Amino acid sequence: MVKQAKPAKEYKNPPLPYAERQCAEIIEKIKSQYNPRNVEGMARFGINPKNTYGASIPFLRNLAKEVGRNHSLALQLWGSEIHEARILAAYVDELEKVTEPQMEKWILDFDSWDVCDQICGNLFGRTKFAWAKALEWPGRREEFVKRAGFVLMAALSVHDRDAPDTAFVDFLPAIVRESTDERNYVRKAVNWALRQIGKRNTALNRKALEVARKVAKMNSKSARWIASDAIRELTSEKTLKLMEKRALSRKRGFRGFAPYIYCRKTDSGAVKKIGLLVNPIAGMGGRAGLKGTDGIVEKAKALGAKPVSPHRAEEMLNALALLYGGANKIPAKFLTCSGKMGAEELAAAGAAHEIVYDAPEKTSAADTIAACRRFAELGTDLIVFAGGDGTARDVWGAVGKSVPIFGIPSGVKMHSGVFGTTPEAAAQALREFLNNELSVGEAEIVDVDEEAYRRGEWRIRLFGTCLSLVEPTYVQQGKMLFDEQSDEQAKEDIAEHVYEEAILNKDFLWILGSGGTLEAVGKRLGIDKMLLGIDAFAGGKQAGKDLNEKQLLALLDKYNDNKARIVVSPIGAQGFLFGRGNLQISAQVIRRVGLENIVIVATPGKLAATPVLRVDTGDRKMDALFAKKGYMLAVIGYRALKLVKIDSMKL
Known about the structure:
By secondary structure, the chain is of the alpha/beta class. The chain is globular.
């Protein structure tokens, strides 16, 4: 008797293949991030709003970490035609499975410059086809295809560390040929490729400058812009120092361009030792307008200054505990100091710890140094400190490069490249370090002469380099100082714009932040503007000089809150509008004035190096308001405005 097969089970809705089902789930997650304000802002930046939900790049990167590499999923994501899903495809595709027909098909679908750049920079530029396409695609007519070719050139200049100089010299004829293309997305990519090639080494720098000077002579507005911008960057002191550092690294046997060096590694299964140190007095002078507490702690206390660093340390520890589902689940052994130098903050967060240094009631820099040396002796994997640049100097002075260091932002001066952007972001970076997901690299230790700082003089000094965590999303870069000559005209134009607004609104109170751009504004207003202080203007004259938080609040009592304006400029490269160098403009002051009455001013040069502006007021609700706002307008010249992204970095 023949056994008959059972009839196949019928499904009203047959199950989808795994990749297709996974794609559908991911798209739902992307859609859950829908933010119409973000989409509107992206559209103003030339990003096609069709099928766009406004999800952030960090969100997409986290999604990519969750799903891992999957070629089939990447194809499904691309086929969805959703903007963010296509960017995610670049993060999850498998390099060895990318085919030439796939690349040719995808480039014809490019409808936004950011999709083009993400796909070429993170995927196509790392495939075996990259070199051939970098030569071929610039000869095509389609705008985004042509752009893709030059983006590949730029990507290869960064990623392919072993390529000979001759390979990049072969790109230069296409750069010359296409430099007359007036289409914006093409000319910017041509410029990008030329600059990246010229930054590889000294020999290619000379070749790129030769090409730039040749292009500068062409009868084309696009060509002249490409050339002048490239010449400016390729002859800058920053670029020349970068190439010197790369040359030195090659002589010492290091590979690659970024000065990243991996420090002592621990077994991925081992619990890392974290040395936690809190400078109890860091940040006290900020709201009091003292620009630091070095040597004047008693004066800060007399003015009503309160400790900042203990609270910031607790914020970081609480955020870290939240990330792990409880302080007892943090995979770290905390070594710390007694009392307010760490033990109290760890106890408040509920984190187990071992006291290895007995701190006196009144602490000093000597205690910081002694404690950090003790951490190093005990084999600490990372020293986390709460403080500012002065504390960073002391920690670095104690351990040098023997132990990486990382700062919870808590001081008045934080220009070094070792600080998290906020306590919550510091927690995120620390979690990735504990999970072996974050590299360690060199960062600069800088500090400002506080006595000169209080007099309104800017004296910043590079003391050396340390090892720190490398993650640009969560860790701030060192402060960038811009070429005063190149930005001088832009500052004058911005000053004229603010001057006209102030004259038209004479009954308004204008609170002016710190920095060179605001100094130019003050000069145009005819007041004695402090370079590094907070000043005020009202009724056609100076209404206050070098003001602290209490004085600002008193002025707001005198004037109607809705007739007040705060004018601020971001710190170069770091991008902080509030929370760095202007703590006098506290969350309470901002709340009185209102976000809608904040005027951001920044030169185009500064914004070019500062793609995202940040706030870290120390007030969660205030930072959340900035995050909700998403984008704000910045004055970049006379009657010239630009939409800029605001990020509070709150988890």
